[in-house]
Amino acid sequence: MKHASEAGFGISLEKKLHTENVMLRMRNEALHGQVDALQTALEQAEAVRQQQVAELQSKLAFFEEQMRLARERMFGKSSEQHVLEQINLFNEAESEASHLFAGANCRTSR
């Protein structure tokens, strides 16, 4: 009798192992699906990050160019010409004042 129950126990154990094996395969497939989904999400996030980096680099280049142009307008040769023109205006005003002053001196000395 013992022998018959051992045979039944063997079949039961075999079914149990088979069921566990099937469940492990299903869990393994589910995990692979999750890994694939995470990999896809990671790739998408990386693509978005790369696009953002490219946009920021483009903006940086634009603002660097704007800064260079502003410096050029502020300190470049054309700004030196404006300074010379302003000095000439100052010299003209000074010259006019000295002529007026000389004319006033001539009138008062008579």
Structure explained in plain terms:
The model has no long low-confidence stretch (mean pLDDT 83). 97% of the residues lie in helices and 0% in strands. The protein has 2 domains: 74 residues; 35 residues. The chain has 2 helices and no strands. By secondary structure, it is an all-alpha fold. The longest helix is centred in the middle third of the chain and has 74 residues.
Largest sheet: none
The outline comes out as rod-shaped
Number of helices: 2
What is the percent of helical residues?
over 70%
Could you tell me the mean pLDDT?
83
Separation, N- and C-terminal Cα atoms: 157 Å
Share of β-strand residues: under 5%
Output the helix-strand order.
HH
Low-confidence stretches: none
Q: Can you count the beta strands?
A: 0
Domain module tally: 2
Instruction: Return the structural class.
Output: mainly alpha
Rg calc: 46 Å
List keywords for this structure.
110 residues; mainly alpha; 2 domains
